[in-house]
Amino acid sequence: MGLFSRNTQPAPVDLGHMRELFFRTHPQFDALPPVADQLDAVAAAGGVDRRDLDELEATTRLFNLFRGLVEHASSSTGNRSLTQRVDGVFASPAGVTDQALWDALFSCGTSGVAAAGFVAETFADGSAAVAVASSMRDSGLLDASYTELPDPGLDQGNPKQVVHSLLAASGFTTLIHGPDSPNALFDAVAGAAPSLAQSDASGWLGKSPEGIIWTILTDNRESVFAAFYGGDLSDGASLAEVAQRLADIGGPWKASVAKVGALVPTDVARLLQEAGVVEAFTLDAFADPSTREGRRRIRRALEQGGFERVGSVLYKGVLPGSGERTQLIWVGFDRTLTLLSPFAEIEGEELPPHLAVEDGRYTAQAFPPFAVLQLELPYTIDEDDLRREALEIARQADSIEHALNPASDDL
Description:
Layout: H1 15-25, H2 39-46, H3 55-77, H4 81-91, H5 98-106, H6 110-124, H7 127-138, E1 146-148, H8 159-169, E2 172-178, H9 182-192, E3 206-207, E4 213-218, E5 223-229, H10 237-247, E6 254-259, E7 263-265, H11 266-274, E8 276-278, H12 289-304, E9 308-311, E10 314-320, E11 326-333, E12 337-345, E13 363-367, E14 370-377, H13 383-404
């Protein structure tokens, strides 16, 4: 070691000494105020019975408030280590405790003592409880009545049964619902919490980088997004941040919280019970990037043209057939854009051989209870060409139907 070398490692901070310094410089405190143990105060500030308070949500917001105050102190003092030390507590596998949060501040020395005084005043005078109660009321979390969602009694692998099991077992579930399509809902959700757009959506459930399992359900009028958290949001700052971002989504979407035991807000219970599950991989956000904009453009054109959404990947409309007849048509969103139009009714799942169509452009497929003409198109097709193709397949299907059964009604 050189003659003038010296150890540049900072000496460890004596946490006991920093605590003593805190109480000497803040004589109004006999003890550090609780952070998480403010639930009675939050319930009182919100005017609800403690038994009706969503404790996980309230605790998460108390922790988020603590962090926000520390971040403000970090900005004021220029000492970014304050926020970094607190984030380290949130990220610790040991979980979050009041002592760990205060010690994280005291480990920053005298600047941490000053920040602790600023934070302690908010948590000691009731301001924290009032702020959390107010934010929960704004999110509709203090006045919701709850309903136990009935078990659908389906096979264990059925998506609706899996959703019910997740609602029953998850300690905390964020629900976002509103009167729009699954794609519009997911776009809004991913806009509020961008990490959700990076989810693994290779199956019917999605999984975010933070490990949040999610799904979307729809009854073709309304849609609901459900994000399932395993238990305590204090297990990590990233989970709590996603939950908070979703709670603050706003706009036409309403955020609420389901509780363990499949207890869901009454205003969303019917939708959860009646809606069908949307496979995550069918959402436009997870489509091949080369087709994503085309999918969205064509969906908009169909909706503006009066087509009805009858599933996450299917739209239904009625177009002119031959003469005065009309013809049903479906537009499906899969690997390719698919047009389907019925020309006969069938029994069972298979296409009867006598209904096979030999045509250079169209194929005949079973689409129970119908036999349909099918045409696959690229997502790059423009709206005028799509309308021409839709009118043509409708006329062709109607023509075949009429040839098979001249007295038939419109399909």
